Amino acid sequence: MDAVVVDHVERYDEDGLMDCLELSHEHACGGGPMVAVMKAARALGATQARVLRYADSGDVGPLDKSRVVGYLSAALLAAEA
């Protein structure tokens, strides 16, 4: 599920992310605020997103990777001049 969210963020596809979240609410806790921030940043001139880091709770120890929580950080950027 996390790969779907990461893909939408990388492509700066806030509408696609919202569609995904409406179909399956467990895709991202805080998904609505993510979409809102992406839309606000676009209104302020951002045109691209760069994923800075993705990890999940299974990365810190020997946990069952089928039941983890993912974490994503991204920068929303204006086009370079």
Distance, first to last CA:
35 Å
* Average pLDDT reading: 90
Low-confidence stretches: none
- Helical proportion? 25-40%
Strand order across the largest sheet:
1-2
C-alpha-based Rg, rounded: 14 Å
Task: Explain what the structure shows.
There is one protein chain. The chain has 81 residues and is α+β, with helices and mostly antiparallel strands. The chain has one domain. Helices cover 40% and strands 25% of the residues. The chain contains 3 helices and 2 strands. The chain has a two-stranded antiparallel sheet with strand order 1-2. The longest helix has 13 residues. It is globular, with a radius of gyration of 14 Å.
Pick out its properties.
81 residues; alpha+beta; two-stranded antiparallel sheet; 2 strands
Lay out the secondary structure.
Layout: H1 2-10, H2 14-23, H3 31-43, E1 46-56, E2 70-78
Antiparallel strand pairs: 1-2
Describe the structure concisely:
It contains three helices and two strands. It is of the alpha+beta class.
